[in-house]
Amino acid sequence: MTDTIAEVRGREVWDSRGRPTVEAEVRLASGRFGRAIAPSGASTGSREALDLRDGGSRLGGFGVHRALKGIAEVIAPALVGRDIADQRGLDEAIIALDDTPQKTRLGGNALVAVSLAAAWAGAAAADVPLWRHLRRLAGLGMEAAHVPLPMIQIFGGGRHAGNRIDVQDFLVLALSAKSFAEAVEMTAEVYFAAAALMKAKGRLNGVADEGGIWPDFSSNEEGLELLTEAIEGAGLAPGRDVGIALDIAASSFGDATGYRLALDDRTLSTGELVEMLARWCDAYPIVSIEDPVGEDDDAGFVAATSRLGRSIQIIGDDYLTTNAGRIAEAGRRGACNAVLLKANQCGTVSELIDASAAARRLGWNAIQSGRSGESEDVSLSHLAVGLLSDQIKVGSMARSERTAKWNEVLRIEEAMPPSALWRFKLPRG
Ligand code: PGA
Ligand code: ZN
Hints:
The protein is 38% helix and 17% strand.
Protein backbone atom coordinates (compact mmCIF):
# COMPACT_ATOMS: atom_id res chain seq x y z
CA MET A 1 0.00 0.00 0.00
CA THR A 2 1.43 3.37 -0.88
CA ASP A 3 1.27 6.17 1.59
CA THR A 4 1.95 9.78 0.74
CA ILE A 5 3.35 12.73 2.66
CA ALA A 6 0.63 15.02 4.04
CA GLU A 7 2.74 17.37 6.15
CA VAL A 8 6.39 18.19 6.92
CA ARG A 9 7.15 20.44 9.84
CA GLY A 10 10.11 21.44 11.97
CA ARG A 11 10.55 22.77 15.46
CA GLU A 12 13.38 23.99 17.62
CA VAL A 13 14.24 21.51 20.40
CA TRP A 14 17.29 21.10 22.67
CA ASP A 15 20.39 18.95 22.49
CA SER A 16 22.76 17.49 25.08
CA ARG A 17 24.85 20.66 25.23
CA GLY A 18 21.72 22.70 25.98
CA ARG A 19 21.84 24.17 22.48
CA PRO A 20 18.90 24.44 20.13
CA THR A 21 18.64 21.95 17.29
CA VAL A 22 16.22 20.95 14.52
CA GLU A 23 13.48 18.39 15.00
CA ALA A 24 11.45 17.37 11.93
CA GLU A 25 8.17 15.52 11.63
CA VAL A 26 6.78 13.88 8.51
CA ARG A 27 3.04 13.05 8.66
CA LEU A 28 1.46 10.72 6.12
CA ALA A 29 -2.00 10.64 4.57
CA SER A 30 -2.71 7.50 6.61
CA GLY A 31 -2.00 9.37 9.84
CA ARG A 32 1.29 7.53 10.45
CA PHE A 33 4.33 9.67 11.06
CA GLY A 34 8.07 9.85 11.62
CA ARG A 35 10.17 12.19 13.72
CA ALA A 36 13.91 12.82 14.03
CA ILE A 37 16.29 15.28 15.70
CA ALA A 38 19.50 16.54 14.05
CA PRO A 39 22.71 15.95 16.04
CA SER A 40 25.58 18.43 16.00
CA GLY A 41 29.38 18.12 16.11
CA ALA A 42 32.01 20.21 17.89
CA SER A 43 35.12 18.87 16.12
CA THR A 44 33.64 19.11 12.65
CA GLY A 45 35.38 18.39 9.37
CA SER A 46 35.62 21.38 7.04
CA ARG A 47 33.93 19.42 4.21
CA GLU A 48 30.85 18.45 6.22
CA ALA A 49 27.32 19.54 5.40
CA LEU A 50 26.74 22.89 7.09
CA ASP A 51 25.11 23.00 10.52
CA LEU A 52 23.02 26.12 9.73
CA ARG A 53 22.74 28.53 12.66
CA ASP A 54 21.04 31.91 12.93
CA GLY A 55 24.00 33.90 14.23
CA GLY A 56 23.25 37.14 16.07
CA SER A 57 22.80 37.44 19.81
CA ARG A 58 19.90 35.03 20.46
CA LEU A 59 21.14 31.84 22.18
CA GLY A 60 24.74 32.67 21.40
CA GLY A 61 23.99 32.59 17.69
CA PHE A 62 23.05 28.89 17.82
CA GLY A 63 19.33 29.37 17.04
CA VAL A 64 17.91 27.31 14.16
CA HIS A 65 15.03 29.54 12.98
CA ARG A 66 16.61 29.89 9.54
CA ALA A 67 16.78 26.13 9.16
CA LEU A 68 13.12 25.85 10.22
CA LYS A 69 12.14 28.53 7.71
CA GLY A 70 13.73 26.44 4.95
CA ILE A 71 11.77 23.39 6.07
CA ALA A 72 8.48 25.29 6.14
CA GLU A 73 8.90 27.34 2.98
CA VAL A 74 11.11 25.27 0.67
CA ILE A 75 11.25 21.61 1.73
CA ALA A 76 7.68 20.97 2.90
CA PRO A 77 5.91 22.26 -0.24
CA ALA A 78 8.19 20.09 -2.42
CA LEU A 79 7.60 16.89 -0.44
CA VAL A 80 3.87 17.01 0.26
CA GLY A 81 2.01 14.50 -1.90
CA ARG A 82 5.08 12.33 -2.60
CA ASP A 83 5.30 8.57 -2.03
CA ILE A 84 6.97 7.87 1.34
CA ALA A 85 8.36 4.54 0.10
CA ASP A 86 10.67 6.41 -2.32
CA GLN A 87 13.31 7.60 0.18
CA ARG A 88 15.89 8.14 -2.56
CA GLY A 89 13.51 10.23 -4.61
CA LEU A 90 12.70 12.35 -1.54
CA ASP A 91 16.38 12.79 -0.70
CA GLU A 92 17.26 13.69 -4.27
CA ALA A 93 14.49 16.27 -4.26
CA ILE A 94 15.74 18.02 -1.12
CA ILE A 95 19.36 17.82 -2.30
CA ALA A 96 18.27 19.53 -5.54
CA LEU A 97 16.38 22.20 -3.61
CA ASP A 98 19.52 23.06 -1.68
CA ASP A 99 21.83 22.68 -4.68
CA THR A 100 25.10 23.52 -2.90
CA PRO A 101 28.03 21.13 -2.23
CA GLN A 102 27.79 21.48 1.56
CA LYS A 103 24.07 22.13 1.99
CA THR A 104 24.72 25.74 2.90
CA ARG A 105 21.39 27.06 1.62
CA LEU A 106 18.95 24.93 3.62
CA GLY A 107 21.41 23.53 6.17
CA GLY A 108 22.59 19.96 6.71
CA ASN A 109 20.76 20.03 10.05
CA ALA A 110 17.42 20.74 8.31
CA LEU A 111 18.10 18.11 5.64
CA VAL A 112 19.18 15.33 7.97
CA ALA A 113 16.23 15.85 10.33
CA VAL A 114 13.75 15.73 7.43
CA SER A 115 15.47 12.80 5.68
CA LEU A 116 15.57 10.72 8.88
CA ALA A 117 11.99 11.67 9.80
CA ALA A 118 10.94 10.49 6.33
CA ALA A 119 12.77 7.18 6.91
CA TRP A 120 10.92 6.71 10.23
CA ALA A 121 7.64 7.51 8.47
CA GLY A 122 8.51 5.04 5.70
CA ALA A 123 9.16 2.36 8.32
CA ALA A 124 5.83 3.16 9.98
CA ALA A 125 4.04 2.94 6.63
CA ALA A 126 5.66 -0.44 5.96
CA ASP A 127 4.90 -1.48 9.54
CA VAL A 128 8.50 -2.57 10.23
CA PRO A 129 11.20 -1.32 12.60
CA LEU A 130 13.39 1.40 11.10
CA TRP A 131 16.42 -0.88 10.88
CA ARG A 132 14.49 -3.34 8.70
CA HIS A 133 13.25 -0.51 6.48
CA LEU A 134 16.84 0.73 6.08
CA ARG A 135 18.02 -2.75 5.08
CA ARG A 136 15.46 -2.71 2.30
CA LEU A 137 16.34 0.84 1.21
CA ALA A 138 20.04 -0.10 1.06
CA GLY A 139 19.32 -3.29 -0.91
CA LEU A 140 20.87 -5.40 1.86
CA GLY A 141 19.76 -8.93 2.66
CA MET A 142 17.12 -9.16 5.37
CA GLU A 143 18.57 -12.43 6.56
CA ALA A 144 21.93 -11.09 7.85
CA ALA A 145 21.88 -11.35 11.63
CA HIS A 146 24.19 -8.54 12.52
CA VAL A 147 24.64 -6.37 15.59
CA PRO A 148 27.43 -3.77 15.63
CA LEU A 149 30.19 -3.90 18.23
CA PRO A 150 30.01 -0.82 20.47
CA MET A 151 33.06 1.46 20.56
CA ILE A 152 32.58 3.23 23.88
CA GLN A 153 34.40 6.23 25.28
CA ILE A 154 36.00 6.06 28.73
CA PHE A 155 37.90 9.37 28.82
CA GLY A 156 36.73 12.37 26.75
CA GLY A 157 39.23 15.03 25.73
CA GLY A 158 40.03 17.54 23.00
CA ARG A 159 37.28 19.98 22.11
CA HIS A 160 34.82 17.93 24.17
CA ALA A 161 36.66 18.71 27.39
CA GLY A 162 37.90 22.29 27.12
CA ASN A 163 41.07 21.04 25.35
CA ARG A 164 42.32 19.74 28.70
CA ILE A 165 44.18 17.07 26.73
CA ASP A 166 44.90 16.95 23.01
CA VAL A 167 43.65 13.44 22.17
CA GLN A 168 39.85 13.61 21.83
CA ASP A 169 38.61 10.11 22.69
CA PHE A 170 40.00 7.20 24.67
CA LEU A 171 37.58 4.37 23.89
CA VAL A 172 37.31 0.61 24.26
CA LEU A 173 36.11 -2.30 22.15
CA ALA A 174 34.98 -5.43 24.01
CA LEU A 175 36.82 -7.90 21.76
CA SER A 176 35.78 -11.12 23.51
CA ALA A 177 32.10 -10.22 24.02
CA LYS A 178 29.60 -12.69 22.60
CA SER A 179 26.67 -10.28 22.49
CA PHE A 180 26.02 -6.54 22.45
CA ALA A 181 24.62 -6.83 25.98
CA GLU A 182 27.85 -8.45 27.16
CA ALA A 183 29.98 -5.85 25.34
CA VAL A 184 28.17 -2.99 27.09
CA GLU A 185 28.41 -4.78 30.42
CA MET A 186 32.18 -5.29 30.03
CA THR A 187 32.58 -1.64 29.08
CA ALA A 188 30.56 -0.52 32.10
CA GLU A 189 32.99 -2.47 34.30
CA VAL A 190 35.93 -0.66 32.65
CA TYR A 191 34.13 2.69 33.06
CA PHE A 192 33.52 2.03 36.77
CA ALA A 193 37.14 0.90 37.24
CA ALA A 194 38.44 4.02 35.45
CA ALA A 195 36.25 6.28 37.61
CA ALA A 196 37.43 4.52 40.78
CA LEU A 197 41.05 4.93 39.69
CA MET A 198 40.62 8.62 39.01
CA LYS A 199 38.78 9.07 42.31
CA ALA A 200 41.56 7.32 44.22
CA LYS A 201 44.05 9.75 42.67
CA GLY A 202 41.80 12.71 43.55
CA ARG A 203 41.38 13.48 39.85
CA LEU A 204 37.72 12.72 39.17
CA ASN A 205 36.25 15.98 37.85
CA GLY A 206 32.92 15.01 36.28
CA VAL A 207 32.24 14.04 32.68
CA ALA A 208 32.98 15.55 29.27
CA ASP A 209 30.54 16.28 26.39
CA GLU A 210 29.99 12.62 25.51
CA GLY A 211 29.79 11.31 29.07
CA GLY A 212 33.41 10.11 29.25
CA ILE A 213 35.40 10.87 32.38
CA TRP A 214 36.79 14.42 32.30
CA PRO A 215 40.52 13.91 31.74
CA ASP A 216 43.03 15.12 34.29
CA PHE A 217 46.31 13.74 33.03
CA SER A 218 49.81 15.15 33.00
CA SER A 219 50.43 13.81 29.47
CA ASN A 220 48.39 12.35 26.63
CA GLU A 221 50.13 9.02 27.13
CA GLU A 222 49.03 8.90 30.78
CA GLY A 223 45.48 8.43 29.45
CA LEU A 224 46.63 5.21 27.80
CA GLU A 225 48.38 4.02 30.97
CA LEU A 226 45.28 4.64 33.10
CA LEU A 227 42.93 3.10 30.57
CA THR A 228 45.04 -0.07 30.41
CA GLU A 229 45.07 -0.10 34.22
CA ALA A 230 41.27 0.31 34.28
CA ILE A 231 40.80 -2.66 31.91
CA GLU A 232 42.94 -4.78 34.24
CA GLY A 233 41.11 -3.36 37.26
CA ALA A 234 37.85 -4.59 35.73
CA GLY A 235 39.30 -8.12 35.69
CA LEU A 236 39.64 -8.14 31.90
CA ALA A 237 42.68 -8.88 29.76
CA PRO A 238 43.91 -5.85 27.77
CA GLY A 239 44.20 -6.76 24.09
CA ARG A 240 42.37 -10.06 24.47
CA ASP A 241 39.10 -9.13 26.16
CA VAL A 242 39.21 -5.40 25.60
CA GLY A 243 41.10 -3.33 23.03
CA ILE A 244 41.75 0.41 23.07
CA ALA A 245 40.51 2.74 20.33
CA LEU A 246 41.66 6.35 20.01
CA ASP A 247 40.14 9.28 18.18
CA ILE A 248 43.12 11.60 17.80
CA ALA A 249 40.94 14.19 15.97
CA ALA A 250 44.29 15.65 14.88
CA SER A 251 42.68 18.50 12.89
CA SER A 252 41.85 20.01 16.29
CA PHE A 253 45.50 20.64 17.09
CA GLY A 254 47.41 20.90 13.84
CA ASP A 255 47.99 20.21 10.18
CA ALA A 256 50.81 19.05 7.91
CA THR A 257 52.90 22.09 8.94
CA GLY A 258 52.94 20.90 12.56
CA TYR A 259 50.88 19.21 15.27
CA ARG A 260 50.92 21.03 18.60
CA LEU A 261 50.44 18.70 21.59
CA ALA A 262 49.84 21.41 24.18
CA LEU A 263 49.70 19.05 27.19
CA ASP A 264 53.02 17.47 26.23
CA ASP A 265 54.47 20.86 25.18
CA ARG A 266 55.70 19.42 21.87
CA THR A 267 55.14 20.21 18.21
CA LEU A 268 55.46 17.23 15.88
CA SER A 269 55.82 16.82 12.14
CA THR A 270 53.47 14.38 10.41
CA GLY A 271 56.20 11.73 10.44
CA GLU A 272 56.90 12.25 14.15
CA LEU A 273 53.18 12.08 14.98
CA VAL A 274 52.82 8.79 13.09
CA GLU A 275 55.92 7.42 14.85
CA MET A 276 54.54 8.45 18.24
CA LEU A 277 51.28 6.60 17.44
CA ALA A 278 53.26 3.54 16.30
CA ARG A 279 55.13 3.56 19.61
CA TRP A 280 51.83 3.82 21.50
CA CYS A 281 50.52 0.84 19.48
CA ASP A 282 53.57 -1.19 20.57
CA ALA A 283 53.20 -0.24 24.23
CA TYR A 284 49.40 -0.40 24.68
CA PRO A 285 46.61 -2.71 23.43
CA ILE A 286 45.44 -0.30 20.70
CA VAL A 287 43.30 -1.82 17.96
CA SER A 288 41.93 1.30 16.25
CA ILE A 289 42.96 4.92 15.59
CA GLU A 290 40.67 7.58 14.10
CA ASP A 291 41.86 10.72 12.33
CA PRO A 292 45.55 10.11 13.23
CA VAL A 293 46.53 13.22 11.25
CA GLY A 294 44.74 16.36 10.07
CA GLU A 295 41.90 16.32 7.54
CA ASP A 296 44.02 17.89 4.76
CA ASP A 297 47.11 15.80 5.44
CA ASP A 298 46.60 13.26 2.61
CA ALA A 299 50.22 12.10 2.71
CA GLY A 300 49.92 11.68 6.48
CA PHE A 301 46.88 9.41 6.10
CA VAL A 302 48.73 7.30 3.54
CA ALA A 303 51.80 7.16 5.83
CA ALA A 304 49.72 6.21 8.90
CA THR A 305 47.86 3.51 6.96
CA SER A 306 50.97 1.98 5.42
CA ARG A 307 52.79 2.07 8.80
CA LEU A 308 49.92 0.77 10.96
CA GLY A 309 47.06 -0.39 8.74
CA ARG A 310 48.10 -4.04 8.76
CA SER A 311 47.88 -4.27 12.53
CA ILE A 312 45.12 -1.82 13.48
CA GLN A 313 42.01 -0.14 12.11
CA ILE A 314 42.69 3.37 10.70
CA ILE A 315 39.45 5.36 10.59
CA GLY A 316 38.77 8.50 8.56
CA ASP A 317 36.20 10.84 10.14
CA ASP A 318 36.92 14.54 9.52
CA TYR A 319 39.04 13.31 6.60
CA LEU A 320 36.25 11.49 4.73
CA THR A 321 33.12 13.31 6.01
CA THR A 322 30.82 10.41 5.05
CA ASN A 323 31.34 11.15 1.37
CA ALA A 324 31.21 8.18 -1.03
CA GLY A 325 33.56 9.88 -3.51
CA ARG A 326 36.16 10.71 -0.85
CA ILE A 327 35.97 7.16 0.53
CA ALA A 328 36.58 5.66 -2.94
CA GLU A 329 39.47 8.07 -3.54
CA ALA A 330 41.05 7.26 -0.15
CA GLY A 331 40.73 3.57 -1.03
CA ARG A 332 42.66 4.15 -4.27
CA ARG A 333 45.40 6.04 -2.41
CA GLY A 334 45.71 3.56 0.45
CA ALA A 335 44.66 6.14 3.01
CA CYS A 336 42.56 4.59 5.87
CA ASN A 337 41.02 1.14 6.03
CA ALA A 338 37.83 2.12 7.83
CA VAL A 339 35.32 4.95 7.83
CA LEU A 340 33.27 6.76 10.43
CA LEU A 341 29.74 7.26 9.08
CA LYS A 342 27.77 10.25 10.37
CA ALA A 343 24.39 10.99 8.80
CA ASN A 344 24.64 14.71 9.41
CA GLN A 345 28.06 14.96 7.74
CA CYS A 346 26.47 14.12 4.38
CA GLY A 347 22.92 15.29 5.11
CA THR A 348 20.57 12.57 3.85
CA VAL A 349 19.86 8.89 4.43
CA SER A 350 20.51 8.07 0.76
CA GLU A 351 23.95 9.69 0.78
CA LEU A 352 24.72 7.77 3.98
CA ILE A 353 23.68 4.53 2.25
CA ASP A 354 26.02 5.41 -0.65
CA ALA A 355 28.95 6.11 1.71
CA SER A 356 28.31 2.84 3.51
CA ALA A 357 28.25 0.96 0.18
CA ALA A 358 31.51 2.64 -0.92
CA ALA A 359 33.22 1.38 2.25
CA ARG A 360 31.81 -2.13 1.74
CA ARG A 361 33.15 -2.22 -1.84
CA LEU A 362 36.64 -1.49 -0.49
CA GLY A 363 36.40 -4.21 2.16
CA TRP A 364 36.74 -1.54 4.86
CA ASN A 365 35.25 -1.60 8.34
CA ALA A 366 32.44 0.89 8.90
CA ILE A 367 31.60 2.58 12.18
CA GLN A 368 28.20 4.28 12.49
CA SER A 369 28.68 7.33 14.69
CA GLY A 370 26.73 9.96 16.58
CA ARG A 371 27.98 13.45 17.39
CA SER A 372 29.16 15.20 20.52
CA GLY A 373 25.85 17.11 20.49
CA GLU A 374 23.11 14.46 20.66
CA SER A 375 19.55 13.98 21.90
CA GLU A 376 17.07 11.27 22.83
CA ASP A 377 16.72 10.41 19.12
CA VAL A 378 17.69 6.76 18.48
CA SER A 379 17.95 6.80 14.68
CA LEU A 380 21.67 6.03 15.05
CA SER A 381 21.04 2.58 16.55
CA HIS A 382 18.78 1.66 13.62
CA LEU A 383 21.22 3.04 11.06
CA ALA A 384 24.02 0.94 12.54
CA VAL A 385 22.01 -2.30 12.51
CA GLY A 386 20.13 -1.55 9.29
CA LEU A 387 23.19 -0.64 7.22
CA LEU A 388 25.19 -3.59 8.61
CA SER A 389 27.77 -1.29 10.19
CA ASP A 390 30.50 -3.21 11.99
CA GLN A 391 30.72 -0.86 14.95
CA ILE A 392 28.70 1.89 16.60
CA LYS A 393 30.20 4.92 18.37
CA VAL A 394 28.28 7.49 20.40
CA GLY A 395 30.34 8.43 23.41
CA SER A 396 30.34 6.93 26.85
CA MET A 397 28.32 5.09 29.51
CA ALA A 398 26.95 8.24 31.15
CA ARG A 399 24.38 10.80 29.93
CA SER A 400 21.01 9.65 28.61
CA GLU A 401 21.55 10.82 25.04
CA ARG A 402 24.37 8.21 24.90
CA THR A 403 22.68 5.38 26.80
CA ALA A 404 19.51 5.89 24.68
CA LYS A 405 21.48 4.50 21.72
CA TRP A 406 23.03 1.57 23.60
CA ASN A 407 19.62 0.73 25.07
CA GLU A 408 17.94 0.77 21.66
CA VAL A 409 20.51 -1.68 20.26
CA LEU A 410 19.87 -3.90 23.29
CA ARG A 411 16.19 -3.98 22.31
CA ILE A 412 16.98 -4.67 18.65
CA GLU A 413 19.42 -7.43 19.64
CA GLU A 414 16.51 -9.36 21.19
CA ALA A 415 15.07 -9.76 17.67
CA MET A 416 18.33 -11.34 16.45
CA PRO A 417 19.51 -14.93 16.82
CA PRO A 418 22.36 -15.49 19.32
CA SER A 419 25.92 -14.71 18.17
CA ALA A 420 24.82 -11.90 15.87
CA LEU A 421 27.44 -9.55 17.34
CA TRP A 422 30.09 -8.48 14.83
CA ARG A 423 33.48 -9.77 16.02
CA PHE A 424 36.37 -7.36 15.63
CA LYS A 425 38.61 -8.09 12.68
CA LEU A 426 41.03 -6.08 10.66
CA PRO A 427 39.73 -4.83 7.32
CA ARG A 428 41.06 -6.37 4.16
CA GLY A 429 41.23 -2.92 2.49
P1 PGA B 1 32.10 15.67 16.99
O1 PGA B 1 33.07 14.54 17.56
O2 PGA B 1 30.72 15.14 16.99
O3 PGA B 1 32.30 16.81 17.94
O4 PGA B 1 32.59 15.99 15.60
C1 PGA B 1 32.91 13.18 17.27
C2 PGA B 1 34.11 12.62 16.55
O5 PGA B 1 35.07 13.34 16.25
O6 PGA B 1 34.13 11.43 16.25
ZN1 ZN C 1 36.23 11.71 15.16
